[in-house]
Amino acid sequence: MPYFSRTFLFVAIVIVSAASLSACGWQLRGYQQYKAGNIENIGAVNLRNTADNRLFQSTLKKQLADLGISLSNDADITLVVNKEHTERRPLSYSSTGITVQYQLIMTISYAHARAPDNVMIERELIARRQYDFDTALVVAKKEEERTLLQEMREELVTRIIASLSSNPAAH
User: Fold this and answer.
1) DSSP string, 118-163
2) What is d(CA 124, CA 136) in angstroms, rounded to the nearest whole number?
3) How high is the pLDDT of residue 134?
């Protein structure tokens, strides 16, 4: 097969693969791309925490700082993080009755208000992940669980910020 046709075939496969992945909605996890201009609707946030969820709070503060959103006691937007709840459920068992797959469920309750009316809107968000568990790899699986929990926090923070940035007139 000549060099030109192999190169052409390779490029064609890459283009078709990229088009297929983007068409199905697949995307990398991470910071959400916010709609242009909407993130400026936030400006600053008065962040209050009524629960002991320092890991969630630090993730929230980091993502706000990364987006250039400052924390201020006299901000137009007040965000109150009420409760974080994490649950680990067995999903499937082996033939000997040992759990081989778990589901992680993280729920965050929060409320936000926007000046001048300052009416608190309460919301609850849920993130779910599942992972396989192997008793021979306990340390590695515990690390995988910690990583999944952090990804879930980041997802929930992204969703909270997106709700704050969307349509300020509706708040």
Assistant:
1) ---EEEEEEEEEEEE--GGGHHHHHHHHHHHHHHHHHHHHHHHHHH
2) 36
3) 79
